[in-house]
Write a structure and sequence with these properties.
Elements (H helix, E strand, L loop, with lengths): L3 E4 L2 E4 H21 L3 H26 L21 H17 L5 H22 L7 H4 L3 E3 L4 E2 L9 E6 L4 H16 L4 E7 L3 H11 L6 E4 L3 H6 L6 E5 L5 E6 L4 H17 L1
Parallel strand pairs: 5-6, 6-7
Antiparallel strand pairs: 1-2, 3-4, 3-7, 5-8, 8-9
Helix pairs in contact: 1-2, 1-4, 2-3, 3-4
Length: 274
Amino acid sequence: MSPALRLGPLVFPIELALLVATAAVGLLAGRLLAGTRAEDVGRVLWRCLLLGLLVARLAFVWQYRDHFLQDPLKILDLRDGGWTGLAGLAAALLYGAYAVLRHRAPRRALLVAMALSTAIWLGGGRLLAPSTQTQPQLAGLSLQQLDGAPAALAAFHGKPTVVNLWASWCPPCRREMPAFEQAQAANPDIHFVFLNQGEAAATVRQYLDEHAPSLANALLDPAGDASRQMSNRGLPATLFLDAQGRLIDVRVGELSSATLAQRLESIRAADARN
């Protein structure tokens, strides 16, 4: 399944759609079961949701605080997708239990709503996780080096690999490029590949010369096949593969240095298990 949902010209990360579905089902179930006290249940559930999101963000910021010290305002930039989901879920459930004990809402309605939301969030996350098998779509891509010579992602097997799908006209792609440039220099044990989507070699070379001169492993995907197959044409998108070329994670949307560090830890851990 693609990690992005397309609605007309708009592309949304699938985890955002999962969060919306989780909240909607919980609120609907709570209101239907609460009867005349539907507003009480709705109020508690909204607080659970907001508290969970706040704690999830703060837990992530604390875990990767070194990345935020130089520019604390980045804490407010939620576009990077930096959350610690289990911490947020625990906070929401604890507040829900507190509300039940204090009789702030009908116990049965609130417990059922919370159980359904938790099941959708955890179960949906497992169902939407990418398969860790080698991706034939990636192996079959027709790629080129900037000089026009053919290229293939198979050349980067042997180490965990990060494949960034980008274009020079894409503002979030440009914003996240410095984080990738720094990560490539700081992590020699990981391959970083920058797969441009649909632009001419001269355009790509000029952009890199001006804005990211030290970037290595820039390749061309002239037809934009990678973004069409892997992210529903959502840019930027980043694929995280283990040393055997198996897809571990996909992120559609902008990454910060902190969220990139989080995912690098994940592919190192996955590679160590294999």
